[in-house]
Amino acid sequence: MAAVCGSTLALMDAGIQIKAPVAGIAVGLVYEDKDNYALLTDIQGLEDHVGAMDLKVAGSRAGVTALQLDMKVPGLSASILAEGLAQAREARLHILDAMAQAIAYPRQELSSYAPRMFALRIKPDQIGTVIGPGGKTIRGLEDKYEVDIDIEDDGTVFVFGEDAEKAEQARDEIGQMTREIEVGEVVTGKVVSTTSFGAFVEIAPGRDGLVHISELAHEHVAKTEDVVKVGDEVKVKVIDIDPEGKIRLSRKALLDTPPGGVHSDSRRSNDRSGGRGRSYNRRNK
After folding, report:
1. Sheet holding 147-151: strands in order across?
2. Would the pTM of this model clear 0.90, i.e. be above it?
3. Could you give the count of Cα atoms lying within 13 Å of 214 in the half-sphere of its Cβ?
4. Where do the domains of the chain lie?
5. pLDDT tens readout for residues 183-238
6. Domain 116-178 has CATH 3.30.1370.10
7. CATH architecture of 2-102
8. Helices 164-178, 136-145: crossing angle, 10 deg rounding
9. 195 CB contacts (<8 Å, ≥6 apart)?
10. Where are the alpha helices (DSSP H) in the chain?
């Protein structure tokens, strides 16, 4: 019954808001006949082994929550059982008083050492995003944050972890991975790859968008790497999301327009030629 008492103390110390403390006590019996017997409170292993009864009673101050009885005599009178229950109640209340001296109420804050379970809901069609090809993404999250992740068919995601902070970080990353991205949103992301036509920027875990080379700067950009390189953090604005979910981003939209406006190479060429020829506006391309 020490396990019952210890569990209650551990739960309260961990900040689990239990309804009431519970204590347990075992009552034994030394029995010759119905008129010659002795009830023993808080029996030890030897007394349990050679005794005639093992009555385990667990409960709070309000009443009994669990009972278990072993008998080694052919029958047990109601009077002996009633006496044993009364003796168990007296002992239980005494133990609860002693426990209250150690900790009277559950702690207000959940212990940082207490295991955590977080839940969030995602759209069912986003389950594949969290799992990833061959389970690569979900295994990566479990290894990174030392958690276990379960996903139900309805999109409910459960994150289990012994480290509260890491479990919460895992939940937040899944939330970022599956959140709705909106046109007009401004985010800071990391350049994950560059091409001749622009840079791909990760704006949420596992979600990239393209900054076309024409959206890197107001001035003409000859080479993507002249402005950004892989690993750079860059602030971008979401300017379009097509029906397939492909995201277009702009760095230029967040930059101040240079004094005198924007001049492309063709505009400068026209200026040098005295304004002859047709001007070329790259924005209308």
Report:
1. 116-121, 156-161, 147-151
2. no
3. 10
4. 2-102, 116-178, 186-254
5. 999 999 999 999 999 999 999 887 889 999 999 999 999 999 999 999 999 999 99
6. yes
7. 2-Layer Sandwich (3.30)
8. 150
9. 224
10. 2-13, 45-50, 78-102, 127-131, 136-145, 164-178, 265-272
